[in-house]
Amino acid sequence: MTTPDTPPIGFDQLGLIPPLLKALADVGYETPSPIQAACIPPLLAGHDILGEAQTGTGKTAAFALPLLQKINVAVAKPQALILTPTRELAIQVAEALQKYAHHLPGFHVLPVYGGQSMVVQLRQLSRGAHVIVGTPGRVMDHLERKSLVLDKLTMLVLDEADEMLRMGFIDDVEWILEHVPATRQTALFSATMPDQIRRVAHKYLREPKEIKIRSATSTVSAISQAYCQTHSGPQKLEALTRILEVEDDFDAAIIFVRTKTATVELAEKLEARGYSVAALNGDMTQGLREQVIERLKSGSLDIVVATDVAARGIDVPRVSHVINYDIPYDTEAYVHRIGRTGRAGRTGRAILFIAPREMRMLKTIERATRQKIEPLSMPSADAVADRRVAQFTNQIIEARNEQKLDFFFEMVRKIEETHSLSAREVAAALAFLATRERPLQIDPATVMPTPTFSERPERTERPVRSERFERSERPERAERGERSERPPRENRDDILAKRRTFADGKLARYRIEVGRKLGVLPKEIVGAIANEGGIEGKHIGQINLFDDYSTVELPADLPADLMDVLQRIRVRQVPLKTRVVAPGELPEEPRRRPPQKKEWSDKKPGGFKKPEWKKRES
Ligand code: AMP
Asked: Of 29, 444, 452, 580, which one has the greatest count of Cβ atoms within 10 A?
């Protein structure tokens, strides 16, 4: 068994081709994660892999990069198949592939999953794709219909195999494994290795290299640890800033993120909110990095947003908090990160931001550190206001005790007398003026709803195989696929609680006040409207980006309460202020390009054409 260490090697030492290295530089990855360092070379060398790794370890890139390297773009047939348990994961993996293939012109990936129109999928499949990412039920359907032919398949990946087992897909997976060329290379990833997965691996993998992320145990007793469950996006930033405000004994913090780009982006956002903060990443010269650390030591900076590599070995005793804004790849990295606090005999505090999908990682970390990580919810607006009032009160008391106030006593006395006001009225007006720039209360109009995740989503058991349809009952299988391939369990209740349904009727064009100049992406708009507004993706139509605003198609006649929400939702910190576009108010929508056959064969140099599924599904 191979156990990946964390040697500071670069992606360029793993045997990857320049277009992939370029894409990795574009997305700002600094070094390979342990699972990537361990998997990429053997996968490139053609070995099968049995990888024990969970979400958050970087496993997608671990299989995606070698897979892309092996694709022959000139052959317009599926050469790789990735099976995932849910449609969300299928889309996510397809997006990751597209990101890493940015400099491989003509490359096409297609996600296929239940719940999406068969007609659309058949059309997309007929155009050809180099990689198919799909859920087992739907992939099987296409194989049976022969709308998906895998005779040129050279690589198969089973992602989150234990989830597929838990969801009752394992028979379908085995059926697929038996209906693809035996000569293929196979990689199986699973967060755990139950016997049934081992059996499948033993039966269908050829002398696989076993790769497991080591989870060494370490003691971190001087550090109190907490986690806050949140999705990425504006809500996460809101949670971070609120937590920074209400944490006791805050002196200085190191905030860990995964990419160089993220260090700069997050530092800028925090700076805009009034923090003295700097980024620290591997792109900076040694001299610059030392300067940042010196400023953190001396107190001229309170927050450093860093990548793991850049923060290696930082020893600054005043660091009271370590914030894992992006989850580390493994427990070793976690222990190393949080060890930046609690130094020189002081106590420290570590806070981990975690997405519902990554909750398994939390258990692994608790096991490895032999310590409980306490849940922490995003502080309410009232809690933040209380803290600000307490700080303001301290300033008032300090000023009263330490300053000579005779001039001001006299001034207030005169105001009381001349305007028949009480001292309390004068004081309230002065407090308002003094805090106008930084109000004590969070403006409710700018606040996003507090996320309402259950504290620790426990997994409820799925129906066992016998309760489900047997293969002979195939007519219902497509429908069954739809039922199985639903949002991940962790946030499903959350979404259902808020989800709105509309008759499949008329769409209207709405204007939103975020546009190209903000660098906004259609998927951010869809994400915000779907998650915050509870409007299902299928009710969100065409999005057109203009410089200062965008338009989005949504059901006509949205109810007032929903319009109210849509006006306040923020994308890139800017409220959408959604409103219906009046006839003739805006330029006509650009005409939709009629679908072209053989889209895959477009080899415009460097041309990166958005496939049709991305336009609607992102
Ligand atoms: P995964 O475990 O594949 O779901 O990846 C989790 C997250 O880590 C994704 O947001 C990736 O973009 C990010 N990621 C993966 N590999 C790296 C890397 N080498 N450096 C920085 N971020 C990474």
From this structure: 29
